[in-house]
Request: fold
Amino acid sequence: MGKRRSPFIYILSALLSGTLLWLAWPERGFSPLIFIAFIPLLWLEEKFLSHETKRPGYKMFGYYYLSLLTWNVLTTYWIWYASDVGSIFALAANALLMSLIWLIYFTTRKRYGTFIGYVSLLSYWIAFEYLHLNWELSWPWLTLGNVFAHNPEWIQWYEFTGVLGGSLWVLLMNIILYQLIKTFFKKDTIPKISRLNTLVLSLLIVMLFLVPLLLSKFIYERRSDKGDPVKVVVVQPNIDPYNEKFSGPAADQLAKLLRLSATMIDSSTNILIGPETALAEGIWEEEIFIDKNINTLRNFNAAFPHLQILVGLSSYHAYEPGEKIPLSARKFKDADQYYDAYNTAMLLNHGDSVQLYHKSKLVPGVEMMPYPRIFGFLDNYTIELGGTSGSLGTQAERTNFITSNGTKIAPAICYESIYGGFMSNYIRAGAQMIAVITNDGWWRDTPGYRQHKDYARILAVQFRKSVARSANTGISCFINQRGDIMQETKWWEEDAISQTIYKNNIITFYARYGDYIGFIAAFISVSMLLFMGAKRTLGW
Reply:
């Protein structure tokens, strides 16, 4: 049995793991630290497995929670600026879910040994990340594969695996490197066997580290933008979301957007892109052609024969008698009729053509209350980001915007851009380029908006699509099909930038099959848990 150590050492190990995860995270972090970030936790659990102790799972859960809460708080503390109480719940709940996954793994390893335990860790964690991409409590910001967002030259193979492939790489590197360290320092092993194990693990680590990097370098150096040119202008009006955007005159905000646009648009410009809720004053979709702000946009558009305008707005739709009423609908106070509120993107073509897309990956606690029967008591503490309150409406299908010359654009509103599997539906439907419209001013000058910008680089790699990104307060940018930033604005400055990007019809392996790694991990996890449950129940 192993020697007991002071709980202080255990606490330091848990804190070290959480701190390393934070230090590895973009955009100021040092990414290679992610390959050793879980080693203190793996060492810590080894100590609890190697000597007898009462309720080791409960004690390990406490250390897991301390570590993962440290990571969550240090990396995403900036959501505090939107809601103090709401952020405390979000950070604590996410760390709790992560800790439960590690606890289930600890229990599996304790009962079935090291090999099965590590297989279960890989499966459980990636299944958890897959779940986090698809359920109502979704918060995939800390998906491990996102850690390389600032280093797209490392992850060109994401076009085959998506970010979950990166998560698998991170976990495997931590596990094998820990085994190598443990073998190197193990004293009760026959020297020849120890040297052989060390050599095998060393070769495995070198291969596991170098093969993905060399493959990525090979792809990166041979990849160039493919397709037909599209000249795009992106506008950053820089309207303070806390003090101006939802209280200032909408006409003045639109005038500012058009004034900045006019400095960059010429007769050859194809697409103008403005940010999320650029038209902050709610517009009834049934009356869209008589709305004064829409008509101002149409008049501006008429001066440029090849121009299409893509902007965000807040919109409403009133349901007629006989229409199916969704759960998100609200009832008019003075009429027996229902309506939905949306966070909307709009493409305005010449003439009377308007296309609308309703944001469908809604932020829990901001744009929707997840599982309201369970969490309805938290309504008073939801994060307030202006505009409409309460749950917003969505749409069932991913529909591309189609310009008058046939260019198909995948619209991503705010953090929809970090959902690779979700965005793959656009690509399979024929999207040729991606437009990300967002606000990003809610988080003030913190790593939050910079991380969000870098996550769009992953999007470009996964689908080999050019990305045009318009952020109200920054950073707006253009990203090529390798994930390189070609041009970007500064934070909290009004600006407009122009770039020729390229549209194409490429459908990558990942675009075709989505988060298949997550599905496989979920299948393995459920199978393992069912087997273990049956074994324990039936006494096999």
